[in-house]
Specification:
The chain is an alpha/beta fold and 418 residues long. It has helices spanning 14-28, 43-48, 65-78, 88-101, 130-138, 164-170, 191-205, 221-235, 250-254, 263-271, 293-299, 311-324, 326-343, 346-362, 369-390, 405-417, and strands at residues 2-6, 32-37, 52-55, 82-86, 105-110, 125-127, 144-146, 177-182, 210-215, 240-244, 258-261, 276-279, 285-287.
């Protein structure tokens, strides 16, 4: 097969890294693969993977007509069989380009916490959790499959990366109980938990030495750094370290005694054989164990809690249990590593992705003018709502991550119980 992979962009993010990793894995299995998209910080990752990058024109309102025309040209010149868009803007542009070029099949992967309702239902779709797959099937989408985030279990493994020089560079104290967070610093989904984690570490610092290392950049970086400075001021020493955005955050995972995370970052933390506390919203904190893993395999590495009240104390209790019992940490760390190896390795996910491509090619072409019109009206409404929202405040920067399926279903379940 000749495959074009089109990430959302080439800035640092979980969906983009997944797209590059899987593109290389599919190439390694004998297929011709190119990457298309806006150049950004991950250009080096594309080059390091030995993949060709075809730069796209500048994007504007999505889908961008200039991008669609250029992408159609590439599909024709390269005789592409599969145009694979990651997240909704590249997915729509890939679908439109296939129609303009009269060649190739468009497929989509959405690793956000919900799927844009204006993606046409006839577009073959891969999603990251069982719960989202079920929700999309309930909404009438016939071709939706589970394509969970992959992890390179060789590059992300205990002992895979040195940490001493990195720790010295960032002033991370050796021998102190260390908690790590690797995350995009976004206001939606992420910020609440990151601020709470700092407060929890400040509580635990009163009992014994502890430090929290936060790696990442994004629109909420100013708030994160300000809160870190305030917590460090209360503690009287530097117990929160903010590294900023890192092209390679593996040392942060590797030096941790406990990882905190959600989504793909949670999986990469698990690959390093350290215990994981899953971060969610509304005060959700839960330690990964044999008793909780099935919930996460269903709903994803995320959850919705009872509210922000007492959230720092709840997280502090989870961390205290792990801090005080090395044996528990070792057991849970080994369990985390086994879980990633058995289900989320790049090789396993790549085989599922190739099968996804093959099914898309083999299936009869399917279009529906009604679904296309519904998608067009839905897209127009989406842009109109964002334009209206921007007049009263900033629109959500994380798009459909701000409306997780797990949160909606959790709220619906709570309402039924009441």
């Amino acid at each position: 097969m000749r495959v074009l992979v089109y990430p959302h962009d080439l800035s640092i993010g979980g969906s983009q890294l997944n797209a590059i990793q899987l593109a290389a894995a599919v190439r390694d299995r004998g297929h011709a693969v190119v990457v298309y998209g806006q150049p950004g910080p991950l250009v080096g990752e594309v080059a390091a993977a030995g993949l060709e990058l075809i730069p796209s024109p500048d994007v504007h309102v999505r889908p961008t007509p200039g991008v669609v025309r250029d992408l159609a040209r590439v599909l024709t010149e390269r005789r592409i069989d599969i145009a694979h868009g990651y997240e909704w803007p590249p997915s729509l542009e890939a679908l439109l380009a296939c129609r303009v070029a009269h060649t190739g099949r468009a497929v989509s992967t959405v690793l956000s916490m919900s799927v844009a309702p204006f993606l046409p239902r006839y577009l073959p779709l891969g999603v990251g959790t069982e719960q989202i797959r079920e929700a999309e099937r309930e909404h009438g989408r016939p071709a939706v499959e589970l394509l969970e985030p992959p992890v390179d279990v060789a590059a992300n493994a205990p002992g895979a990366v040195p940490v001493a020089a990195f720790a010295r560079e960032h002033g991370i104290e050796p021998g102190i109980f260390t908690v790590s967070i690797v995350s995009r610093l976004a206001r939606e989904m992420k910020l609440e938990g990151i601020l709470t984690a700092m407060d929890a570490v400040e509580l635990l610092h009163r009992e014994a030495p502890i430090q929290l290392v936060i790696a990442g950049g994004g629109p909420a970086e100013t708030e994160v750094r300000a809160h870190a400075a305030a917590v460090n001021g209360i503690a009287g020493e530097r117990i929160v370290v903010c590294t900023g955005e890192l092209t390679d955050p593996r040392p942060v995972y590797a030096l941790a005694d406990v990882g905190i995370g959600m989504g793909g970052s949670a999986l990469r933390s698990m690959a390093f054989g350290v215990p994981l506390i899953v971060q969610g919203e509304r005060g959700f904190w839960r330690t990964l164990s044999a008793a909780t893993v099935e919930d996460f395999l269903w709903q994803g590495w995320y959850g919705v809690g009872p509210g922000s009240g007492g959230a720092a104390e709840r997280l502090a209790a989870c961390l205290r249990e792990l801090r005080d019992d090395r044996g528990v940490r070792e057991v849970l760390g080994r369990f985390a590593r086994r879980t990633v190896e058995s289900r989320f390795s790049v090789s396993r996910v790549a085989e599922r992705q190739i099968a996804f491509y093959e099914r898309a090619i083999a299936a009869p072409p399917r279009t529906s003018w009604r679904e296309s019109l519904d998608a067009g009206f839905g897209l127009f409404a989406y842009h109109a709502q964002r334009a209206l929202a921007s007049r009263t405040g900033p629109a959500p920067s994380e798009d459909f991550n701000s409306r997780p399926v797990a949160a909606e279903r959790g709220a619906a379940a709570g309402a039924r119980e009441r």
